[in-house]
Predict the structure of SH3b domain-containing protein.
Amino acid sequence: MLKQWVLAAIVLASASVARAESSGGYSYPVGLDENGDNFLALRSRPTTQEGVRLRKLGPGTLFSVIRRQGAWYNVRLLDGESGWVYGRYVGCCARGPQGPAPAVAQTMQVVVQPGEAETARLRGQVEQLTALVRANQEKQERRERAEAAAAARQAAAQAEAERPLAADEDALAGLSARFEQAAANRASYLTPTKPDDQDLGRTARTASEQFPKVPFYIPGTRESGRFWVEPRVGDTGRLSYDMVFVDPRASVDQKRAVIDLTPEQLDRMKLAIAKISLWSEIAHRNEVRRHYRKRVDCFPEASCPRDGDKIDGKSSTEVVFFVNEDGSTGGRIQRNKGRYDEGYNVSVKSARLLASYLSYVQSRGERDYAAGTRTAADLDAMFR
C-alpha cells in the first residue's frame, strides 16, 4: 500500500509539473507541517548530501518548474533566484501576480476537469502520506537522539569506572615522572639511560579492598555491613587470612569482628559458601517453604559443639544454611564463643559473590607470599 501511495505521489507531481509547464501557471509548496518546520528547502544541488540550503520557501511561495531530475525539480522564483526542491512537496497550479492565466490554460482546464477532481483527491492522500512519513522520520530522529544520549552516558560511566582509584594515584604520579625522564633521555639517546622496566603491582591487601563489596546483615535488626578479607603474614612467617566484618556507618571503630583463618580453613570456607548456593537451588526446585536450618561446615572440629549446643571455653567458626517460611534461602557465618555466638547472615547472591571474593583474595595472597618468601637459591633455580 505504501508503494502505491508513493507511486501516486510521483504521478501527481509529474502531472502537476506538466500542467504547469503547459498552462503557464505557478507551482507552490504543499504537504508542509504547520506544527513543524513548515517550509520547503531551496537547495543548490538536487540532493541533501551535497550543496547548501539557499532559502526556506514557506506556504504560498510561487515558482516555475524549469526541469526535473529524478525526484527533484529545478525551479525559478519570482525574483529570479533558482535552485532545487524535492518534488514530493510541490503542488500546482496557481495564478501569478501578473493576473489571470492565458486563455489556453482556461481551455485546458475545462477539458481535463474530471481528472482535476481525481488529482485533488490524490493530492489530499499524498499530503496525508507525507504527514505520516514526516511523523515517522521525527520518531526515528527522536529514537536516534535518545540512543546517542544513552551511549554518551554509558561512555561517561565507563570513563569514570576506568578512572584511576585513589589508592593508585601515587603510582600514577610515579609513572608520569618516569615517563618524563624517559622522554628526556630519548631526546639524546635511542635507549633509556637508566632501567625503566619497573614491575610495580598492587599488594594483595590493596587488591582485596578494590573487589566489589560483599554485604551482610544482622538478623532481627536493621544493621548491615560488608565483608573484608585481608591476607596477613604473622611473626612466625605463616600466611593467614583475616575475615573482617565492617560496619561502614560506625564513627569510631568500623570493625565489628575478625575471624582468623588458615589457608586450609579458607578453602573449607569457600566450599561451604558454594554449597549454600547449591542447597538453595535444591530448596527452590523442591518448593521448600518451612523454617529449616542445617550446618554446612564447622572448624576446628575439636572445638565445634553438636549442632544447636554450646561448649564452654571453646571457640569455632561454622557456616549455616537456612530456609525461611516464605521459601527464601540464605547463609550464616557464625562465630561460636563458648556459650555465646554471633552471626552474620548473607543472601544467596551475596554468598556467590563472597565465594568469588575469597578465591580472588586467596590467589593474590599466595602470589604475594610466594614473592616474599623466595630465597637466593629459589632465584638461582629460576634463572638457570
